[in-house]
Amino acid sequence: MSLSTLAQVAAQRAGKRLVTTNGVFDLLHAGHIGLLEDARALGDMLVVALNSDESARRLGKGRGRPFVSLEDRARVVAALRCVDAVVSFEEPTPEALLGALRPDVHVKGGDYRMEDLPERAVVEAHDGIVVVVPFREGCSTTSIVERIAASLEG
């Protein structure tokens, strides 16, 4: 998201509750959709922050990850009815971006613990809240990749 897009989000936000979430969103699946719908239900506008390809690689999610390029991941996520805007970030975590957006609510999936979220301090510093929504068991890109690999072995 460029500065002009950030300005557009700020203009659209007027009087609206802004919700953010972030992640790689590689191989979009039902767990991602559930997280995004849960996040959107907490406010009036949802901005999704995607790890850039290099940022995603640095997370150590596995060889060849992300499988889907940032451009394609952004296009797929932006097409979802519950998403209002998509932005990317180069750092491992989105603190700088969240400092600029100043969301009212920042959402993470239940595979994260509140005390382990570095972005929590940034969000809470401007009176925002962080919400961890329930994890959907078996709904992860890693589990999908493992099932595919197992099916190819046998």
CATH superfamily: HUPs
Order of adjacent strands in the largest pleated sheet: 3-2-1-4-5
Named CATH architecture: 3-Layer(aba) Sandwich
Give the radius of gyration.
Answer: 15 Å
Mean pLDDT: 88
Integer tally of domains: 1
Distance between the termini: 43 Å
Shape label: globular
* Main sheet specs: 5 strands, parallel
The number of distinct helices, counting runs of at least 4 residues, comes to: 7
Report the CATH topology name: Rossmann fold
The top level CATH class name: Alpha Beta
Helix content: 40-55%
> What is the β-strand count?
5
Strand content: 15-25%
Low-confidence stretches: none
- Structural class of the secondary structure composition? alpha/beta
Order of helices and strands: HEHEHHEHEHEH
Brief digest:
The chain is α/β, with parallel strands linked by helices and 154 residues long.
Task: Provide the fold topology.
Blueprint: H1 3-13, E1 18-23, H2 30-40, E2 45-51, H3 53-58, H4 70-78, E3 85-89, H5 95-101, E4 105-109, H6 119-125, E5 129-133, H7 141-153
Parallel strand pairs: 1-2, 1-4, 2-3, 4-5
Helix pairs in contact: 5-6
Describe what this molecule looks like in 3D.
The protein has 154 residues and is an alpha/beta fold. It has one domain: Rossmann fold, CATH 3.40.50.620. It contains 7 helices and 5 strands; from the N terminus they run αβαβααβαβαβα. Strands 3-2-1-4-5 form a 5-stranded parallel β-sheet. α5 runs parallel beside α6. The longest helix has 13 residues. The protein starts with a helix and ends with a helix. The mean pLDDT is 88.
Highlighted features:
alpha/beta; globular; 154 residues; 5 strands; Rossmann fold; five-stranded parallel beta sheet; 7 helices; single chain
